[in-house]
Amino acid sequence: MVKLLNQIHGQEFIFDDVSIYGVSELYGYDFEQFYAFFTSNQYELNNIAPEGNLTEILDQLSSKYKMSLITGRPNEWMNSAVDWITKNNLAISNHFCASEYADGKAGCAKKLGITVFIEDHPKHALEIAEEGIQALLIDKPYNQECRHPNIIRVNEWEEIARKLVIS
């Protein structure tokens, strides 16, 4: 998404250097503007390839775990997320829209009996950890203050795979 926004706005932000979670803020978007951007650019966003060897890692993990997507995106964007998963042959068996739950991702995960949750958003990771669910927090500049005994920091998908296959 950052690459597409950079192209549109002539910027050169690098996602891994961004110190705020809401990338829309980098480009001066309010919620309505970002919503319009995301909605009108579904085709371009669906053509973004999965990161690194994510496809292979999810294949490996799915032999031991039931992999689900719990997204905080609005329900009307869910079909787009499912299309992206299907197009990229990702080993994700279920998908849920956390916005349908009053208590968001943490409540959804708790109701579904999720035992390990992979997240990068500090607020969601903390809420998930507070529900007693282990959160693997993908280490980013914008989540450095997030701490909890149920949170384990990870740097990349390969590390996630190592932690989950060993456990």
UniProtKB/TrEMBL annotation:
Family recorded in the similarity comment: Belongs to the 5'(3')-deoxyribonucleotidase family.
Tell me the keywords, alphabetical order.
Hydrolase
**UniProt feature coiled coil, ranges:** none
Q: What is its EC number?
A: 3.1.3.-
In alphabetical order, the GO MF annotations are: hydrolase activity
Q: Does the keyword Cell division belong to this entry?
A: no
Q: Which SUPFAM superfamilies does the protein's record reference? A: HAD-like (SSF56784)
Annotated source species: Paenibacillus albiflavus
InterPro entries from the UniProt entry = 5_3-deoxyribonucleotidase-like, HAD-like_sf, HAD_sf, Nucleotidase_putative
Q: What is this protein called?
A: Nucleotidase
